[in-house]
Specification:
The structure is a homodimer of 111-residue chains. With 111 residues, chain A is an alpha+beta fold. Chain A has helices at residues 28-40, 67-75, 77-90, and strands spanning 12-21, 45-52, 57-64, 91-108. The interface between A and B is large, with 44 and 44 residues.
C-alpha cells in the first residue's frame, strides 16, 4: 500500500525533482519505469518516492548515499538520453534540488 | 499551469513530507488548504510544492530559510492540532526528512 522508501539513518542525500508534464505520453511512462529500475542498480542508491497528480505536476524524491553517487547517476549514458528526451518531449518545466538530509522521522498507524 | 516554487539561490532548507492517506476525506482537504495558507505566513517560509496520486500516496516539499523557521512551524499551535489529527485520522504512514539544499537548477520550455 505504501510507496515509502526504507532508508538508513541520516546523513544521506536527497534529489528533489519536481516537474510539470506536457500533454500526452510520448513514451514517458515506459522510460520512467526503465529509469527507476536503472537507478535502483546504481552504486549509492538508497530509495525513491514519487507522486504525480491528475494536473500533471509531480515530485520524485530520490535518496543517495553521497554527492558522488548523484553525480555518477547524472552522467549515466542511458540516463543522459532520458534527460535529453525530457527536455525535448516530456516536461514543460522542472526543478532539481540536491540536499543533505540531516534528520528524519516517521509515523506508521498500528491500529 | 506549474506549481513550481520560485526560490532564492541555495543554501536553504527543504522538508520532504511523504504520506499515504487513509480512505475518505475526514476533513483533510479543508485542513490541508488551511495549513498551506498558514505556512505561507510563517517567518522563513520560502515556498511549497505538492503532488498526490490517485493511489493516495503524496509528497509535499516545503522550503524554508533555516532550521529555526522549520522548528517554529512545527511548534505552531494550529499546526500542532493538524499534526495530531493527521496521526489520528488522515495518514496510514508518513515520513519527514529535513535537508539542507546545496545546489539547484531547472528547465523551462521556451517554444
Amino acid at each position: 500500500m505504501s510507496d515509502q522508501a526504507k532508508l538508513p539513518k541520516p546523513p544521506y542525500y536527497v534529489v528533489c525533482f519536481s516537474s510539470q508534464r506536457t500533454e500526452g505520453d510520448h513514451g514517458y511512462g515506459d522510460m520512467a519505469d526503465a529509469m527507476e529500475q536503472l537507478a535502483r542498480q546504481q552504486p549509492g542508491f538508497l530509495g525513491v518516492e514519487s507522486a504525480r497528480g491528475s494536473d500533471g505536476f509531480g515530485i520524485t524524491n530520490s535518496f543517495w548515499q553521497d554527492e558522488e553517487s548523484i553525480r555518477a547517476w547524472k552522467r549515466n549514458v542511458d540516463h543522459l538520453v532520458a534527460q535529453r528526451l525530457g527536455r525535448q518531449d516530456w516536461y514543460e518545466t522542472y526543478e532539481l534540488r540536491v540536499a543533505r538530509v540531516e534528520r528524519a522521522y516517521g509515523f506508521r498507524r498500528t491500529t
